[in-house]
Amino acid sequence: MTRDAGPNSPAAVLFDMDGTLVDSEKLWTIALDDYAAHRGGALTDATREAMVGSNMTRSMRMLLTDVGAPATEADIEAAASWVAERMAELFADGLPWRPGAQEALRRARALGVPVALVTSTIRSLTEMALETLGRDSFDLTVCGDEVDGRNKPDPEPYLKAARLLGVDPADCVAVEDSPTGVASAEAAGCLVIAIPCEVPLAPGPHRVLRDSLTDVDFDALGELFTRAA
Question: Annotated catalytic residue: which of 16, 66, 171, 177?
Fold first, then answer.
């Protein structure tokens, strides 16, 4: 498939948010633990690990099941509202950047190709995070409550970003930190730069593992397509 962005640039760079650009997974752990305690239980490590990279609805279903509470649609909605309110309190204090993330955004913008944020986080919280990330860092943002329930690991978040940008997802580089997010981007056809944060990531044919964003050469992203082929 022909690429229009030149030999050293993808058609677009698509960034995940939590755990990739900002170190917010730890804040999610606080909010989730607080809600579990509110319901008289405790969130297990295994369930928390399974939530990383997931969307609010799926996470709340897992949380409620983990603490032995009913998980009807109404229960999930109430849990999501409680956790979102707690997360808003935590986000309001500002978000810590992941290593190399600020420079990575600058280098991606300097490529002259579209840059998008593709996150499982709901729009209201993403808007708060953009106060840290910078709204002008992205040409487009796709949030977890904007994909008609087809959240990561479904490919729809990345497919939607590519559609709105008018590019082929197979010509895009996605930057992810979780197995759920990597699966979503790979299913969409993207090449993935996989940088683990809270959960280990295994090698794969359509991913390039790095320890941090400081290890990514954004001036040579086009070469990664050849290496991963």
Answer: 16
